[in-house]
Amino acid sequence: PLPVEPGSKLTLDLAALYDHSSPELVHVARYARGIQQRRGDYNGRILSIRADDLSALAIIYDTTPSALLEKLSELGVLIADPAKFFADQKD
Ligand code: C2E
Ligand code: C2E
Ligand code: C2E
User: Fold this and answer.
1) Bridge partners of 13?
2) Distance in angstroms (rounded) separating the CA atoms of residues 87 and 81
3) 14-36 mean pLDDT
4) CA 45 to CA 56: how far, in whole Å?
5) Would you say 42 and 36 are in contact if contact means Cβ atoms under 8 Å apart?
6) CA atoms within 13 Å, Cβ hemisphere of 64
């Protein structure tokens, strides 16, 4: 099952995304940096983006939003539950 259901929030793990060696993630990483710039949101560990942005990225990757979501999940750059993510970091 996907960590992000259709209609729920799409949240990226920025450290995982920017550190990832996979060339497949180049466009996602560039897009996320662009959103951070427009928001002035530079200090976050994670970034919630619009469902519309997933659709735009799916076009760039010549795939569907759900297939791209699955890919992002496989590559370990999605966060299913931001609150839990931060709770887990505190150990
Ligand atoms: P936080 O900023 O303290 O927000 C805690 C919770 O308040 C969020 O839980 C969400 O339920 C609500 N909230 C905060 N800002 C908004 C908003 O603009 N719209 C709505 N509808 N709700 C809002 P959530 O989503 O589970 O996020 C947990 C934490 O993850 C946030 O704590 C924040 O530290 C981080 N986070 C999530 N998305 C982003 C992001 O895009 N950028 C950054 N820098 N941090 C984010
Ligand atoms: P904008 O689309 O005109 O949005 C203006 C402001 O409305 C945003 O300022 C934000 O405070 C709020 N806002 C709009 N839509 C949402 C939403 O779905 N959730 C939440 N929590 N707030 C929303 P902000 O964040 O400073 O962004 C400035 C501009 O940067 C936005 O203007 C937009 O043009 C762009 N931007 C920021 N984040 C994103 C994003 O995730 N995707 C896209 N496509 N553009 C974004
Ligand atoms: P969120 O803030 O909890 O917003 C959930 C949904 O409510 C958004 O899903 C959008 O459909 C709607 N929404 C919230 N605020 C606005 C608004 O000002 N204008 C409009 N037209 N719709 C709004 P969406 O677009 O898929 O965004 C998912 C999450 O991405 C948002 O959750 C928020 O955490 C983040 N986000 C999206 N756009 C922006 C933005 O411009 N600035 C910031 N800071 N965060 C954004």
Assistant:
1) 46
2) 10
3) 93
4) 23
5) yes
6) 4
Q: Which two tokens stand for residue 39?
A: 């928001």
Reported ipTM: 0.81
pLDDT digits (tens, 9 = 90+) for 27-43: 999 999 999 999 999 98
CB of 50 closer than 6 angstroms to any ligand 2 atom: yes
Name which residue sits closest to atom 24 of ligand 3, judged by CA.
Answer: 50
Sorted by where each starts, the structural domains of the chain and their CATH numbers stand as 10-89 (1.10.10.1930)
Q: Which atom of ligand 1 is nearest to the CA of 44?
A: 44
The SS3 of residue 86 is helix
For residue 49, the CA-to-ligand 3 centroid distance in Å is 7
CA-nearest residue, atom 11 of ligand 2:
39
Count, residues in the chain: 91
d(CA 85, CA 18): 17
Identify the three-state secondary structure at position 21: coil
